[in-house]
Amino acid sequence: MTKITHITKLAEDIAPGRTSGMRLKENILSFILDIGGMDRTARETMEEKLRHNLGAVDEVDEIKIIQTSEKRPITIIAVGSGKGGVGKSTLSANLAIALKRAGKNVGMVDADIYGPSQPRLLNMEDEKPKAEDKKLIPVMNDFGIPMLSMGQLAKPGQAIAWRGPMAGNALHQLIDAHWGDTDLLIVDLPPGTGDVQLSMVQKHKPDAALIISTPQDLALIDAARAINFFDAAKVPIIGLVENMAGYLCPHCGEVSDPFGKGGAEAAADKMQLPFLGRIPLDMSIRMASDDGTPPALEDGPIGKGFAAIAHKVTTWLDEKNK
Ligand SMILES: Nc1ncnc2c1ncn2[C@@H]1O[C@H](COP(=O)(O)OP(=O)(O)OP(=O)(O)O)[C@@H](O)[C@H]1O
């Protein structure tokens, strides 16, 4: 390994994807460091570590770092539904956990103005984000998923009264924040196709959308509306997830289908969209969600279901970026 290859590797370990133009001449090491999206503390810590570790290499007497704040591309995935209460927030939280477990740097934006539930789902109620350079710094949780939520900006019960520009402005603050190393941002949208969705596609066009529905007709008609909305805005749709499919009675062991069966898969087929998977109606999902311990953390059948959906999402993104 040549000296410069060795140095490049060391730098890559400390600042993955952020250093370029590595040059060693007359014992002076120079390179470019992309500090886009990092807050001051993260920036200073990274620079200090680079100087310390690279400075320890033989033949490096001096280090010159040129900082640029070229914005790192961040992939935005919007999670939408036509109807409320179909499990959109539950899916968003568990998808984020499953993607994180698959090695992605995931961040979460809870844009559900009518009932921000990510702080509870990701176990970080009461934590308010700080700001630097007029931009919010996402709050980190125990799962390693930085998050910003409408609920952190509004007083309890206030957000629902926000209209067009206020809702759009709040969304802008959540998305245009110090996301640091985050490369995948999950946006938990409010149900339907209102002000926040409009602002989302006009100002922060997502790279992709994912739609969730329960299997019954009414929810599917609404889901089709959400799909048409993203289609019209030219946001590619990764696929459709069916939630609350099949209920296993904990008492008699019989499986019943309170919301019908297979409706979302058939609808996906009809609309020529990929079907991403089915999540059963299971009391343990509700209980784990209420406790702030998303079931995607576990390796049981429910956790595996979310992991399989996450896998389809990453495969779709890899195909798109080819
Ligand atoms: N598969 C499931 N099995 C059991 N309970 C579920 C399941 N999916 C979601 N729930 C529960 O249903 C309720 C609604 O879910 P969630 O908040 O995720 O829906 P939503 O579509 O985001 O709703 P909203 O429109 O309020 O944003 C929650 O109490 C959640 O724990």
UniProtKB/TrEMBL annotation:
Provide the GO biological process annotations: iron-sulfur cluster assembly
A GO term, aspect molecular function: ATP hydrolysis activity
Q: Which SUPFAM superfamilies match?
A: P-loop containing nucleoside triphosphate hydrolases (SSF52540)
Q: Where is the signal peptide?
A: none
Keyword hit for Cell inner membrane: no
Recite the UniProt keywords alphabetically. ATP-binding, Hydrolase, Iron, Iron-sulfur, Metal-binding, Nucleotide-binding
Entry binding sites for ATP: G82, K83, G84, G85, V86, G87, K88, S89
The UniProt function text for this chain reads: Binds and transfers iron-sulfur (Fe-S) clusters to target apoproteins. Can hydrolyze ATP.
Name the family the entry cites.
Answer: Belongs to the Mrp/NBP35 ATP-binding proteins family.
Q: How is this protein organized at the quaternary level?
A: Homodimer.
In Swiss-Prot or TrEMBL terms, this protein is called Iron-sulfur cluster carrier protein
